[in-house]
Amino acid sequence: MKNKWVRMGMAIVLGVGLMLPVQGVVRADAASEASNGALTWLSYQQDATSGYAFDGLVDSFEDFWGPNNPKQIVYTYDQAVASIAFIVKGERARAEKVLNKMRDIQDPSGYWLNSYWYNNGYGEEIRKHVGPVVWMAMAAMAYEKQYNDTRYRPMALKALDWSLQYQQANGGIAGGWSAWANSDEPWSSTEHNIDIYRVLQYFASVESSKTAVYTSAANGVKSFLDTYVWDESAKRFKGGWKNDTNLIDPKIPLDVNPWAVLALGSTGTRNYGASLAYVENASGTPGTLANPRYKQTLTYNDAGQTLTGYDFDWTDEVLPAYDDNGNQIGHTGADVWFEGSAFMSLAYYLQGNTAKADTINMEIIKKQGTSGASLGGIPYSLKGTSNSYWVMAQQNCVSSTGWLILSLHRFNPFTSQYLTGGSNPGDTTPPTAPANLAATGKTGTTASLSWSASTDNTGVTGYRVYRGGAEVAAVTGTSATISGLTAATAYTFTVKAMDAAGNLSAASNAVTVTTDPADNGGGEHVTPDFTAGGTKLSSTEVSLYITPVIPALYVDVHYKINGGPQLNHRMSLASGTWRHTVSGLGGGSSVEYWFTYEKSGPQFDSAHYTYIH
């Protein structure tokens, strides 16, 4: 059977096969259409906040109060999911709109409230929970790793520092603070601890000032997960730990299991991957806490067609549900939680079960909106039951829609990596720091550097060169020439190694290079291999030349006028000297130039030189 995707009055027939994305690019099939549709809906929800206090954030729900009656609320967790989904879709500007606004509203101490009314800025859920706060740090990590841009790192570090105040003696991170009780939360959620583990590891690897503290904290979190909330007999995680009573939380929400696989891998200290089998095979009839059931097949339209997905919690009994204060909050019952179903799909793909992952995604897509304001959106839940914590909305929402994008593109937000299937989440061990950084040459506008290679547990893929705190070059070898410098100026450089997972090493030793004074007129440069320089022809022209000691088969000249774009030309040979005329100069114009030339077979690059007209 084929699904239909209706967009702007045009029906586009979708195939049922899901194809493997390569670096986030999905081929033109059902997965691609569903992903593009989800982006359309997320973009619409972001545009809905335009002109309001929280302009740039993404409205969490479509018509939450009812048809044409939106609940104007933005959840902090949703903003993290939306920004990561925008990054995966290549929508950098939209991701930055979210991250910029969240940076603007971050409390100086590092937290965000769980949610905000975006039409007036007032907090709707006056809680400061570690999980949503850490997810914003995770979003900053995704941006940094995908774009090699550290602009949101200070925001992430403040969020992590705020969260670590809640670390307990057993290593777990407690929940945060609640205005409703005006006190700290007395529980350490398994979910929140899974959230923070890889984020702590990443920023420990790239921020040397935090390495010791974050590494120690991450080790404590891992010990808590393995020792306190892992159920070895059932091979799955419990919901958390009650710090006020020192008792395990008996509830077993679905999400802690696929999220743990994504964050910790299928194997490790425990057999984390077995938790997916627990979820899959739990078959209580009816499902109860003692005899759970998560997988449900339910009707999803008036025609009686069915879809299969996973519920938030363990029960499908239709019973009244109560909060911790004894207040009834709807009814329990069989449901499909679409966000959680996407978690399961991505975790199965990590294990190498592509067919299972694709099947789950196709089931989710059955409920994707096909027209109007609902176009591309995914509901939070199918039936709107209580999950023993809250009543799940049935409206299209950011979390389910954003997670569909992540699942379709095989992007693991816990490590900010595209998965290849059948592997543990990404390597988190950074390479060793490059050693013996030294200057090997300089001109008025360039500095040449070299260093000793780093080592890594899986392999170094390249190096980043920094001038002060700014990245100025990315290379794969152990040398680099930095151009565009100012003559007679001191510059300090460091280098970091990078591996395939995006882990950065600590910085190398620093080296300071003072560039040469500027060349004036047609200064000539004599080397063992060639003589080169510039001859002024007129008030607007200079002839750049090079005379190789060993005749060359070709010479290319590269130059920049007054720091502008690089221009490249094949030079003309006459009487053993290669020449090229540069025009359009004025008095005092600076020409940075260098050569690529053939020397007895191999190709060589010269140093950079500067000509002042």
TrEMBL record:
Highest taxon of the lineage: Bacteria
Chain ranges of the Fibronectin type-III domain: 433-518
Domain CBM56 residue range list: 525-613
Entry keyword Signal: yes
Entries under InterPro entries matching the protein: 6-hairpin_glycosidase_sf, CBM56, FN3_dom, FN3_sf, Ig-like_fold
SUPFAM superfamilies: Fibronectin type III, Six-hairpin glycosidases
Gene Ontology MF term list: carbohydrate binding; hydrolase activity, acting on glycosyl bonds
Secretion signal, residue range per the UniProt entry: none
GO biological process, one term: polysaccharide catabolic process
Name the record gives this protein: Fibronectin type III domain-containing protein
